[in-house]
Amino acid sequence: MDTMPDNGHVLSADSTDRPGRFGPYGGRYVPEALIAALDELDREYAAARQDPAFTAELDHLLTTYTGRPTPITEAARFGAEAAGGARVLLKREDLNHTGSHKINNVLGQALLTKRIGKPRVIAETGAGQHGVATATAAALMGLECVIYMGEEDTRRQALNVARMRLLGATVIPVTTGSRTLKDAINEALRDWVTNVATTNYVFGTVAGPHPFPTLVRDLQRVIGVEARQQVLDLTGRLPDAVAACVGGGSNAIGIFHAFIDDADVALYGFEAGGDGVATGRHAATITAGSPGVLHGARSYLLQDEMGQTIESHSISAGLDYPGVGPEHAWLKDSGRATYEPVDDADAMEAFRLLCRTEGIIPAIESSHALAGARRLGERLGPDATILVNLSGRGDKDVDTAAKWFGLMNESGEVGA
Amino acid sequence: MTTSVAFEKARAEGRAALVGYLPAGYPSVDESIAALRAMIDAGVDIVEVGLPYSDPLIDGPVIQTAVDAALRAGTTTTDVLRVVEAVAATGAPAVVMSYWNPLDRYGARAFARDLAAAGGSGVITPDLTPDADDSWVPAAREHGLDTVFLVAPSSTDERIAMTTAACRGFVYATSVMGVTGTREQVGDAAAGLVERTRATTELPVAVGLGVSNAVQATEIAAFADGVVVGSAFVRRLLDAADPAAGVASVAALAADLAGGVRER
């Protein structure tokens, strides 16, 4: 893996005075009981990243276990037929072991857990990809693993629940609140505050209290570092735009980060527009939210006038979250990145098109980025090169897609 | 009355103060007022008025259930201030217990101003440490409100000193590592934490999390300046056949606990 630079690219220059801050965002809004564990994680991570043995072990796993570097694939038919003739390049995070970018982060955090000496890990999951990745790393490293997943999500991502259980994890369906990712995080935090002496919280995205937004970003940064060089090697120049889907925002930060200082590369994050932002049933946090505090950090969130969190809606369980990582909030305010909503219907159309033009079934999360790339292709024209982070594969979504496209018969089976 | 006076009064009687929590708006705004007043009549010295929040990450299932119901019934921050006003009118100090985002959204200065105007004594902030944000403490000072921050068994001595330096009124020591809810045992960690906290401050130290009965109250009162009871009161409301029975049940528990802090 590339050496992981300090928290200080130009946009967070004040971070030395206020660790974990991205402009006014980020920070640590948590019960005092968790501070010692967050400090420990911060300290151990700072030491680990300077430790050649740690980085070598992580590198080795990323190469021999995960399959990095992941390739980029030129999506020529998709570009020609579905994206205004633009040159579309896919960063194939779907080809990682466990099927998404989530494994990049989890292997690093599981190694950190072992370094700290705790025997148990917990994690939240929405679509199940982070849960599967955590269960995988826990099995590999002999750690006890408990995954919190909203009951609603355990239904729509039943395949991933089975995968986690096969890997030896305990999956706890969360029945509070909206029964999705937000509530799974609440429950995981409650577990952590109770069992912090023996347990590390393997957080799945670039949200949450410091050091998670920095830690997870650094572990996902490999996506953009690889992709930037791969695009240069293939095309001889940098892409005009980079597109990624944004729920909490880990795959997006992962691919954006290496391009932040490349002023000519436009960065686009595509949020889940659900039924359409105007309907109020969406998960477009940056587009339609406002600054506040959720799950330990200041960032944009969907909230009412009293500061109560508003439930999000998306066909994609992995993007169905009313918050977003604080670094995205800062990239938005600074103008360095642009965030737009993609509604369910547009995402599913992009899903279908990628299947038919490239023979790749994408995750519904990633299909939001593909829909965004179509939009950018129309806008930028055939001379443009658009790099898309294909953050995960769609095996887990086959059931949802079959229903959406009417491939089920009346008894709910995929049949004649 | 301020919280300091309430702690003084208890100390003069040679006992710990009893602090009782209920969320505003459960089962309704008026019934939460009735229950809090009944608590005071039965011997609770200081009340905590909970501001319902959608993501109460340090609360266990009992408080979550009541708070969810209060929010579904439409309880607003303005309702919470109305509860404070009605309770403070009895003369007992009322502090608000609130997660940070609803206060941030209301505006730290506006909330401090309106809480002081309602007769509130201060705010306990379970997910706001003094070093997390620099807007709350100055706003509270300007309006003479107590700033009550939490210390935990996992806190270092340095953090305890930093926290108590920012506290006014009293310090809230969490007896165990965990979320709110009744427990069989309230942890040996509590006595040690109170001792470490006292080494840094003259302020009274109240112990909460897990205390549900008079025996536990007596146990905690032996080494702390205040005993905080929350989930056990909420449980009484959740289990009641009707709101009037709930209020009576809360009063009975309050009387029992008031006996507990006087036992020695």
UniProtKB/TrEMBL annotation, chain B:
Which reaction does this chain catalyze? (1S,2R)-1-C-(indol-3-yl)glycerol 3-phosphate + L-serine = D-glyceraldehyde 3-phosphate + L-tryptophan + H2O
Q: Report the sequence similarity comment from the record.
A: Belongs to the TrpA family.
**PANTHER family noted in UniProt:** TRYPTOPHAN SYNTHASE ALPHA CHAIN, CHLOROPLASTIC, TRYPTOPHAN SYNTHASE, ALPHA CHAIN
Q: InterPro entries this protein is in? A: Aldolase_TIM, RibuloseP-bd_barrel, Trp_synthase_alpha_AS, Trp_synthase_suA
Annotated protein name in UniProt: Tryptophan synthase alpha chain
Tell me a GO cellular component.
cytosol
Record flagged with keyword Cytoplasm = no
For this UniProt record, give its keywords in alphabetical order, as a comma-separated list: Amino-acid biosynthesis, Aromatic amino acid biosynthesis, Lyase, Tryptophan biosynthesis
Taxonomy, top ranks, is: Bacteria, Bacillati, Actinomycetota, Actinomycetes, Jiangellales
Q: Domain of life, per the record?
A: Bacteria
The EC number(s) given in the record are 4.2.1.20
- State how it assembles: Tetramer of two alpha and two beta chains.
Function as written in the Swiss-Prot or TrEMBL entry: The alpha subunit is responsible for the aldol cleavage of indoleglycerol phosphate to indole and glyceraldehyde 3-phosphate.
Organism of origin: Jiangella aurantiaca
Q: Which pathway does the UniProt entry assign to this protein?
A: Amino-acid biosynthesis; L-tryptophan biosynthesis; L-tryptophan from chorismate: step 5/5
Residues at the active site = E48 (proton acceptor), D59 (proton acceptor)
Q: Which GO terms describe its molecular function?
A: tryptophan synthase activity
Segments crossing the lipid bilayer: none
